[in-house]
């Protein structure tokens, strides 16, 4: 059996009361209600913004590694 917290989260996610969630409901109606084009677009946009943040962090990490490599090379030349 699912725990109560998960049931509450599911009911919030689907916009249903707990009573509606646990009674005999048509799952397809729930899916159609919640997978509107707006929600799908929102999920797609969220994933794209996440990818943008990952790219930024990768570029910053690469810049730091290049800087450190230059510092090590400079230290080897001087030292």
What does this 3D model show about the protein?
This protein is an all-alpha fold and 79 residues long. The chain has 2 domains: 1-35, no CATH class; 37-79. The protein is 84% helix and 0% strand. The protein has helices spanning 4-14, 18-22, 27-34, 37-78. It is elongated and about 75 Å long. It starts with a helix and ends with a helix.
* Count of folded domains: 2
Report strand %.
under 5%
Main sheet record: none
Low-confidence stretches: none
Short recap of the structure:
This protein has two domains: 1-35, no CATH class; 37-79. Helix content is 84%, strand content 0%. The protein has helices at residues 4-14, 18-22, 27-34, 37-78.
Produce the secondary structure layout.
Blueprint: H1 4-14, H2 18-22, H3 27-34, H4 37-78
Q: Notable features of this structure?
A:
2 domains, 79 residues, mainly alpha
């Amino acid at each position: 059996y699912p725990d109560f917290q998960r049931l509450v989260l599911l009911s919030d996610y689907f916009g249903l009361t707990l009573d509606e969630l646990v009674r005999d409901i048509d799952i397809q109606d729930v899916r159609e209600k919640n997978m509107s084009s707006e929600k799908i677009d929102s999920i797609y946009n969220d994933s794209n913004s996440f990818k943008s943040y990952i790219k930024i962090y990768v570029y910053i990490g690469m810049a730091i590694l290049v800087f450190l490599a230059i510092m090590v090379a400079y230290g080897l030349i001087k030292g």
